[in-house]
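Per reviewer request, we include the raw input and output of the structure prediction for the construct analysed in the revised manuscript.
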Amino acid sequence: MVEELSPEELRKECEPSFMANETTETMLPLKSIIGQDRALRALSFGLDIKDDGFNLYVAGAPGTGKETAVKNFLEDMAKKKDVPYDWCYVNNFQDPYEPKAIKLPPGKGKAFRKDMERLINEARMVLPEAFESKDYARRKETTVERLDAERKKLVTELNEKAREEGFVIQKTPIGLFIVPVVDGKPVSDQEFVSLDKDRKEQIEEKREELKSNLMNTMRQVGELEEKIKEEVKKLDREVARYALGHLADILKDKYKDAPLVGKYLEEVEEDILDNLSQFMGRAKNTPTSLTASLAREIQFRKYRVNLIIDNSRFEGGPVVIEHNPTYQNLFGRIDKETQFGILSTDFTMIRAGSFHKANGGYLVIPVEELLRNMFSWDGLKRALMNREINIEDAGERLGFITTKGLRPEPIPLDAKVVLLGSPFIYHLAYSLDKDFRELFKVKADFDTTMDRNEENIRSYASFVSTLCKKEKLRHLDLKGVAKIIEYSSRLAEDRGKLSTRFADIADIIREANFYAGQGESDRITRDHVNKAIDERIYRSNLIQEKIGEMMERGLILIDTEGGTIGQVNGLSVINLGDFSFGRPSRVTASIWMGNEGIIDIEREAKLGGKIHTKGVMILGGYLAEKYAQDNPLSLSARLVFEQSYGEIEGDSASSTELYAILSALSGLPLKAAIAVTGSVNQKGEVQAIGGVNEKIEGFFEVCKIKGLTGEQGVIIPLSNVQNLMLKEEIVDATRLGKFHIYPVKSIDEGIEILTGVKAGKRKPDGAFEKDTVNYRVDKRLKEMAKKLSEYPEFKERKKKKRKNK
């Protein structure tokens, strides 16, 4: 017979002696990520390699602390990097719709913005003063007078010529007219008509000749007027250039190491000279409306510097975590504003995105959030492949915006992108997106567990210490830390492992700190940790209590005493998300003579999952190999989970179902005091299952409700013993002999415990040992096969088969 497990095998205690300190207060803080050596190695490789495409995908289950761990790791790496450049957008004076990008050493961007603001403000003061100076007035007057004299001379000569020919030139609102003079006075049109024909022809001939001279003179006058304007403009530019020269030269010298700045300053200077009139509008003591003042200030926006990235405050490279990776949050946006009822924009309304902020460092993005946002995934791939950041309106890509908008110059991209997500999404993206394979060549897998050894236990204690110091919580004493270690192994479902779900561990410590405060304790003890765990369970186990109540009242039929043929207590786990618990279920088997095989009622009712169906089908293989070597397997059986109204999934009840069939075939009752869990293969080996602690505890709770008799217990797979981290209550019950846990490695071992009858081995002659379970099963199957063969229907079926052959 199988020996039951000792109390010491049901739970691995943690001895407080592992710590040299009395509390976590005096422990050294945690300096690195613990339990993730594989992931750290991958991170180091992915961040150090400079080739294209070696971005990282950090895979791990939620709650493993991968985001915090990655953030801390990246911040340490970023300290070794140079501070990246500042980036500005400035006006493109050749094409304002395509603003130019300028990079500057860190901290210079802010200075450049202030310098340009100062330059324009000084220009607005200096230029009007320069044009109000007496020297400028004298030079302008001299230039105008010289050219005006030439114009007057031409006009005078034309008038004299007209007088000599007997005409006078009269100026009217609609132009110049050549009027003939007769008898010393100008002639009107009526008087001209009354003149004789020869006289009129003579006057007209001279007037046409004079008209040609007039046109030539007026052309020369027009050219002189244009020349006056050009000379004045040339003078204005000369004066303005002289006034601005020292201001621009200072900036050119200051930013001589930035060629783009020097070129930009030359363009600014030329634009100011081309638009001097807007600098001349400063009227002293002249009240203006708010609209006019705003319109005037808008004219000077084109000289501003839009500093989108300012790295003056950084030491090392940036680490940016974007939790809301919308297209605009990643790649920036171009804002718009209403001016005088019109929606407008310009380069000063360009805003940076996370890619701009992370340029020269690291950008961390949760992949699930990334995939939820339209265009973000495609935009990210395009940016990484082209190694540049483009700012564009997402509406343009949809075709919703047809008006002309800004097309800012792309900024070169030099950043590592780190995606955080589940292993499932990684495998999905790797399989379906060829670009993903080329861009994210490094996978860092965060494990959910780590070995429970002395080194990791001490590291765990350091994590607890760091958490308490960081969040100003009460520190834990030795027994409190030991309880946290045991709880961690429980979360890992392995006594030899510790969980890396640090978020759950941290929550328990925070709750324990609350209860320590209620008890006015200056330390968190084991009792406080136990209370935090118990209270967390209590908040979530209402359904478990309701199910237990229904079992106690007989609404759900579960026996914990006596025995029944073809009936056994199976164990399953109900997962409510934040809480999982074990629920016993009655599994029954009915058999009859026939050759339908094993029929799974759950599958027939479409309540059985694929894995559960597979587990049931394995039972037929086991029965056929063990009992049908010399006889056909003539069996019809039905299996069902009684009072189960939801879907059944998993194969952890396959051994339970097999025990029910063996009981029904052998006629031996199964002990109701013993519940069973474990999957089985075709060779009869009992295999490990999940949730073993919850399943044992679930049956124990039912036994408590119905009354512990000292006979109750659970059969589990031998390979699951290493997963046992049961509640202290169950350990104490086994120590008192009130509860028992039996580890088995085969169906034969389990059936012996359930029936109290030896399983029986096959003898050399092929028969099983007499009066054993296997003997009874084999005998019953042979009897059923023999009786079935005597039925006329069976004989007729055999004849048809032979005939078809």
